[in-house]
Amino acid sequence: MQAHCDAFDGEWVVHCRDERVGLRAVIAIDDPALGPGLGGVRMGRYPHLDAGTAEAKRLAAAATSKLAFAGLPYGGAKSVILDPGRPVGRSALMRRFGEFVRRLDGAYVPGYDFGTTSQDMLDVGSGGAEVTCTQDDPMSSTAAGLVAAIEASVGYLIGGDLAGVRIVVQGASRTSGDMARLLAARGAHVLIGRPNEVVITPSDVLCVESAVIDADAAEVLNSRIVIGTANDLLVAPRDAETLADRGITYVPDFVGTAGGAIRVHGRRAGWDDTRVRAEVAAIGDRVRALLEESDRTGATPLHLARQTVATSVRLLRSNAVGAGPLGGPFDVPPRAESPVHGDGLVESGLSLR
Fold first, then answer.
1. Cα(277)–Cα(266) distance, rounded to whole angstroms?
2. Which residues belong to the active site?
3. Does the first or last residue of the chain, that is N or C, have fewer Cβ atoms within 10 Å of its Cβ?
């Protein structure tokens, strides 16, 4: 196992390799200022290790934004396991990966992601690593949080509830499917778009789960509101400015997709189902506050959300007071305590002041 930080603003990049079980993997831990790195384990085909490393770095940075804005006591992380492309013992591969994670001594807490399952996490845990998502499914909370974000956006920008609102859901992930069903149950007119395509069908809301919005796409989208249903939606941050110039509001993906992370933290902190649901629903309050502040200042919601994340992380690094959404103060648990094992949730990440 080797660690380096080549061309990466984060703390660690860890490469894991054991040819005996077909393991080639990378773990990226972006910023531990909020606590241990929390993030999923992806498994898939990549042309080479560098491609998997680049994806892990990119998604770890996006996870830091999500966690910091939500006020959760973790840094962003992500790991990628390269599909060996040949028959291997999957359980042995996952267990060996867990042994590498264990050697990080709690710096990374993995859960499942695209290409992995709860059984995989059990196998990773059998290697001695602390894991999440072994018996609890966070994806339903991701979908619920996204619906709360959409309801808040529609209520503020269009007016009213979701009845009759035309919503395009682009993608085929389980989260997108769960979200589409919840939206339809609230009376929305839901259309399903194909993954990895630019959808120009007229709509009130466009939900996108892959990074297909570049400068060209931003010029042709035909929706009032665009919201990301997975991390790192825009090809470049300036694309949000292009959307805004065309009268399209982009709700930052790292704000709307925090429901799963909130649920994972809640389970670790011992919350009951009622509290988990309430904290996930509060994503809608954050989104409305962002939109109100955007109207007041003229800045895009993305710009405001990124400012909040930068302020939170900078102050947390100095063990000072963090900034909740839109700069509202909150008290950071003392570093001598272990917020991961206590309640740990930053207060004003949930009720804006």
1. 10
2. 78
3. C
